[in-house]
Amino acid sequence: MMLDDDRSPGRGATVEAELKGLVRGRVHASGDDGYEQARTVWNGSVDHHPAAVVHCADAEDVRAALATARRCGVPVSVRGGGCDWAGRAIREGGVVLDLSAMRGVRIDPGTSVAEIDGGVLAGELLDAAAAHGLATAAGAVRSVGMTGMALAGGYGGLIGRFGLTLDNLLSADLVLADGSRVVAGPDDETDLWWALRGGGGNFGVVTSARFRLHPLGLVIGGIVMYPAEQAPQVLRGYQEIIAAAPDELTVMAGFLTGPGGLPIVFVAPTWSGDLDTGQVAVDPLTKLGTPVMSALQPMPYPELLHMFDAGSAPGNGNALNTRWLPALTEDAITALTEAALTRTSPRSLLMVHHFHGAATRVSSDATAFAVRRPHLLTEIIAVWAPGEEADQHRSWIADVSASLAPGALPGGYPNILDPANIERTRLGFGGNLERLLAVKRRYDPDHVFSAVAALH
């Protein structure tokens, strides 16, 4: 089914009026009750004013709204979980295809497959899978859109055992820029299938997707906090542990605000294997220094993802940057420690994600996501109170990123890079860039979808 739509009420109407008479889902335009909430995303510093927000009820609403926007010459964007910090999901003056009402989750325990609609959050999928003793690789928080995360990569506590989130994506249903509906998978639209896994939301709107599930009981997880002055010895010990970690042990580290408002360095393991073996494996993480708090215990995997709920709460101002580090060298440890001590807001934090195990045993050209060597994804996250001036916090991010640059791998993770940083984004795709650009030209030659500007 292509873009011409016999349900159109006429080309003379505004795009908002056309949409309101066309789709099953609700449409919010400027001045409507609910418009302000509809245009709000997780990052409180994003203040974009779209022409209309279409709360799509199903794939046909997506197709019809897309057709109308294109016919009216209005740009489009796609909102899944609404956690895109850069605000790309809410296009200024555009039509937002909001998938937040498309939240169905269907678990087939016999085949260990989950089918989800395009607006499902990670926590919703994990809760449904856990009811059957199953799980899939997800990120570090529950509130992120599962599909958007999978299209970019998806670092999390199960990465060592089950790979990136995108490594567990089995197939996806899409509405393309020309209005056609396709299924991309290992046997269908194979170039598109390759590009989706790491190329981001640049080729169409994913209205549903299927994920591989894995048997998983309790995991051992939690957090151990140390005073910031112990950071060098803690991070040295952390590097030694992760360098020899089995697939079942993935450990996040970083800096946040601890008891008393002081910066602390933390380690946060996820052990996904035998619990007795796991207790022995995580114990050294409690002895890297003198902890101010240690809370590691068996728990359901979905519960573990509540750990950073407070830090991911919506409404604050946020800005992010990232560096891929091959390891925590002495220079990197010094840079991160200095960054923690000079942060411009007690809400700001640094996160170090551990990439190893199963995720590294995928060829760099098997998916668009190219960086398959062991490494550490470092997130530099500035968080400030609503209404507070942002310049000093953005400067802090730039300084930290620059201090880590000399020892970093080329490029960066597109979900965390500034969309304007085209050069680093392109470098992140490595040898996959030319193929990715060719797929973009084939499926979206008019650049209707622009989640990653580097692919234009």
Automatic annotation (TrEMBL):
<protein>
    <submittedName>
        <fullName>FAD-dependent oxidoreductase</fullName>
    </submittedName>
</protein>
<feature type="domain" description="FAD-binding PCMH-type">
    <location>
        <begin position="46"/>
        <end position="216"/>
    </location>
</feature>
<dbReference type="InterPro" id="IPR036318">
    <property type="entry name" value="FAD-bd_PCMH-like_sf"/>
</dbReference>
<keyword id="KW-0560">Oxidoreductase</keyword>
<keyword id="KW-0274">FAD</keyword>
<dbReference type="InterPro" id="IPR050416">
    <property type="entry name" value="FAD-linked_Oxidoreductase"/>
</dbReference>
<dbReference type="InterPro" id="IPR016167">
    <property type="entry name" value="FAD-bd_PCMH_sub1"/>
</dbReference>
<dbReference type="Pfam" id="PF01565">
    <property type="entry name" value="FAD_binding_4"/>
</dbReference>
<dbReference type="InterPro" id="IPR012951">
    <property type="entry name" value="BBE"/>
</dbReference>
<dbReference type="InterPro" id="IPR016166">
    <property type="entry name" value="FAD-bd_PCMH"/>
</dbReference>
<dbReference type="Pfam" id="PF08031">
    <property type="entry name" value="BBE"/>
</dbReference>
<dbReference type="InterPro" id="IPR006094">
    <property type="entry name" value="Oxid_FAD_bind_N"/>
</dbReference>
<dbReference type="InterPro" id="IPR016169">
    <property type="entry name" value="FAD-bd_PCMH_sub2"/>
</dbReference>
<keyword id="KW-0285">Flavoprotein</keyword>
<comment type="similarity">
    <text>Belongs to the oxygen-dependent FAD-linked oxidoreductase family.</text>
</comment>
